[in-house]
Each structure stands twice: as C-alpha cells, then as structure tokens.
Design goal:
alpha/beta, HGPRT, Hypoxanthine phosphoribosyltransferase, magnesium, guanine phosphoribosyltransferase activity, 3-stranded antiparallel sheet, binds magnesium ion, 9 strands, binds xanthosine-5'-monophosphate, 23% helix
Length: 183
C-alpha cells in the first residue's frame, strides 16, 4: 500500500520505498560477506519483522533458512519492560548454528536483550542482530547490533511491518502518524 491510500494519516514520510530497499540491499551484501562459507539461519520476530525478513532475504544471493519467534513483552502502555513471554518458539534447534535475528525496530532494546540471551543459552555457534530501524535510546543498552539500517528520531513510526492498532503494516514506506489518528 502506498501513502496516498491512507487518507492523510501520515504526518511525515521518514523513509521511502527506495530508501528502504536500497538499505536492505546494502545490509544483504554485508551479511553475504560476513557469513561466506557458513550456514545461516535468519530468525524473524513476529509480527513487525515480516517485511524486513521478506525483502532482506530476497536481496541475498545465497541459501538461508528462515524461522520465526513471537514474543510478547509485558509493559505499561507503549513502553516495553524487558519482561518477556514466548508466544511461539522456534521450530529449529539452533545448537551450533549461526543465527541472525531480523528485527524491524529497536527502541529501548529491552525485548531484544532478553531475546539474544535466550538464544545464546541454546548453544548456537553465533547470534547477531540485524534491524532496519533503531531509536536513540537503543544505544544505551548492552546489546551489540551488528547490522543497522537507519537511526531514526524518537517518534512512533508505522509502516513496512510496523503497526498502530494492527494497521499500516502493509505500507511500503515508514512514517509518523498525524495526531488526528490517535484521537
Ligand atoms: P524495545 O523497547 O524493547 O521494543 O526495544 C521494541 C518493540 O517495540 C515496538 N516498537 C514500535 N512499534 N512503532 C511501532 O509500530 C514504533 O515506533 C515502535 N517503537 C517500538 C516494536 O514491536 C518493537 O519490536
Ligand atoms: Mg518487533
């Protein structure tokens, strides 16, 4: 879906389709170099990462396996707390596997930090993280994110997998919502 189909719900487009796809192609090239000769399992975090997973994986010119986790973070309102529950676990045994977590956005990093330690406890060969978007607060957390698409300002964004009340995930762009949408 394109921005004109949401009737002025977007206040500002932060990233166009071209910018998103160009960046994912760059990230895919770096991933190909870094994992050359190694098997690779991409782990997407539902539901926000669906678009990043689909497009990043198709920019790769090599075999990869894909698996998914769904986690829910208990938080007050829109803030995540770092207290996490697995809603859907991996189907794959990741012992001795190279795992790359594919994320849409890292905000506080609390969810991701929990996820990375959970995956590391399963005896993988490696666990790294790739995210399309990162907010400023994420820099304060301990998780080292190897592949970052864009650092964005601290505003709530939708599109390209990211939702507000489950809408806007199918937008091709990433943008901020106009105030009238919230009220
Ligand atoms: P933390 O704070 O643990 O949370 O890094 C990351 C998760 O919070 C959600 N999130 C957003 N979702 N627009 C969204 O649609 C945003 O601007 C936004 N910021 C954080 C998202 O689920 C992410 O995985
Ligand atoms: Mg997410």
């Amino acid at each position: 879906m394109d921005p004109e189909h949401v009737d002025g719900d977007l206040e500002k487009i932060l990233l166009t389709e071209e910018e998103i796809q160009g960046k994912l192609a760059e990230l895919a090239a770096a991933i190909e170099r870094d994992y050359e000769g190694q098997d690779l399992l991409l782990v997407g975090v539902l539901k926000g990462a669906i678009m990043v997973m689909a497009d990043l994986s198709r920019h790769l010119s090599r075999h990869v396996e894909q698996d998914w986790m769904a986690i829910s973070s208990y938080g007050s309102g829109t803030r995540s707390s770092g207290v996490v529950r697995i809603v859907k676990d991996l189907d794959t045994d990741i012992t001795d596997r190279h795992v790359l977590v594919v994320e849409d956005i890292i905000d506080t990093g609390l969810t991701l930090s929990w996820l990375v330690s959970n995956l590391r406890s399963r005896g993988p060969a490696s666990v790294e993280v790739c995210t399309l978007l990162r907010k400023p607060e994420a820099a304060k957390t301990a998780v080292d994110v190897k592949y970052v698409g864009y650092d964005i300002p601290n505003a709530f964004v939708v599109g390209y997998g990211l939702d507000y009340a489950e809408r806007y995930r199918n937008l091709r762009v990433v943008g901020t919502l106009a105030p009238h949408v919230y009220s």
